[in-house]
Design brief:
The complex is a heterodimer. Chain A is built from three helices and 28 strands. Chain A is mainly β. In chain A, the strands form five sheets. In chain A, strands 2, 5, 7, 9, 11, 13 and 14 form a seven-stranded mixed β-sheet that branches. Chain A is elongated. Chain B has seven helices and eight strands; from the N terminus they run E-E-H-H-E-E-H-H-E-E-E-H-H-H-E. In chain B, strands 2-1-3 form a three-stranded antiparallel β-sheet, covered by helices on one side. In chain B, strands 4-7-8 form a three-stranded mixed β-sheet, sandwiched between helices. In chain B, a hairpin with a 4-residue loop joins strand 5 and strand 6. In chain B, helix 1 crosses helix 2. The chains are: A mainly beta, B alpha+beta. At the A-B interface, helix 3 and strand 28 of A face helix 2 of B.
Chain lengths: ~325, ~200
Amino acid sequence: MLRERQARATFTLPARTGEALVSANNVAGTLTITAKSNTGYGFATFWDNTTSLQGSGNPLVNITFAKSLSGAPAGKKPVTIMSSNALGGKFGELSDISVPTNATELDVRAFANNSTALSVVINSSNTVLLLPDDPFVCGLLQVNGLWQRLDAVKFTALSAVNTDAVEMDLSWQSNISNIYIASNTALTTVNARQIDYQSPGGTLNVVSNPLVHTVLCDNTNVRQLYIMGNASLGDISLRNCEYASQISLSNNNLTTVDMVGCRPTDGKYGSTPTPALDLRLNQLGAAAIDKIFADLLPVTAPIGTPIIHVATNPGAATCTPSIATAKGYVVLTT
Amino acid sequence: MTYFDAGPFMVPLNAKAGSSSMVIAIIKRWHPVVYQSIVNGHYPEGKTLQHVQWHSLCPQRTQPFRPVVIGIRNPIDRFCSGVAHFNVTVEMALNSLLNGAVIQTPRRNFVFSKDIHFAKQINNCRGETHLFRFPEHVNEMAELLDLDEFPECNIAVRPKPVLTEEEKTLVADHYAEDMDLYQSISQPNSIRVFPEPTQTNDFV
């Protein structure tokens, strides 16, 4: 687990604010780190106190730091990277850091309370990621490896997560714009409860994760939910997601959905247009569908006439649409 | 961008230019299974299928792969329709459209410069595009798309504002390309070729 890894870690150099520490243990090959800075320049200090000033002054272009590990001493070999001016003086902020598979550790704790979103890409499950305990503005967290668990603690402005973690706990985060969790073959559990999304609301995507059996996303102000194509997902809680106006839960294996306090409203536009509440291609029986109808809040003016689509469920033909139509919804059953 | 599948053509979602009527007519003609589902639907008391917006159920792509058919509305009329739709003042709408000011509602915040109801119509034109004026050429447009019916849907419930000359100038300047395009449509089914899309996506 990440927190256990944090507890085991030891550190050679203290990182100053805005600096990242990358470490390797190998004594062969090359350690290659890429990053971007808003100055277009970056400065690295290697384990042997050699330094490297890189970049062309273009903030859009990745800066690459590379150093051979051959002949290096055994044990931990830290590299400090930071944004700099053209002369190598500390200046500006890093925005994207990607570390190679031979990196053993990426320490971004010195980015606590940063103002610019920092994106982090790790390419090995053996790389320990050390995150700040204080609020951390993270743009993208991508882990290309198989972790057993990811606790994304105190992220703010997190725009995307792409990981192969088995369990993902993003609960109680704040200021998140969008979460995108797709095609993770090992992921079983997503805990996205109590998230305070950015106003006017964010998006939670949990798409095509074949082993996901539990998704918790109750008590949030999420606006759009796309939880689709998760073949093992049998039940889900959206309780008290009153601001969720476009909810697509199609093509899972749902038998129950908790929608107490929800009021899906539009769903007519967007990159993935769906009915306000799309429940197609699940395993919902008539009683389960009727419970959803009963749990929904009534439509309020001037929202219009939202559509609930329940076709291709075992209970579609025998459910009781009048429960929902009495609240102002249109129900499609075929 | 959203382009509805209308048989041999694709029809962009051009909000505040008859899109609700167009969508149900396209579904009825070109997607009969979807239409039957709608007809068999269960409606609140006093509501019919014409009270519902069906955009999400019409097969569509984000880029066209067949010739595009579009009805271009006079940009000033369309702007006024959008203002009435959101029930805001002209001043608020212009401030949001031109300066990015946020329109706040209890459930959602809008910036008109990024809202589909105020998007420039010319941006929907891609590749071979068959141009009509909306609503003047609606019958000819329906004929080309082989639509036997063009029901009135999503009819405005609030009166449209009357713009001052200064406001008209601001709107016309903002939508100068749309205005030129609208005025260039001298007859129904004027065909022009616009830059091709760079990619296509599957139906959703």
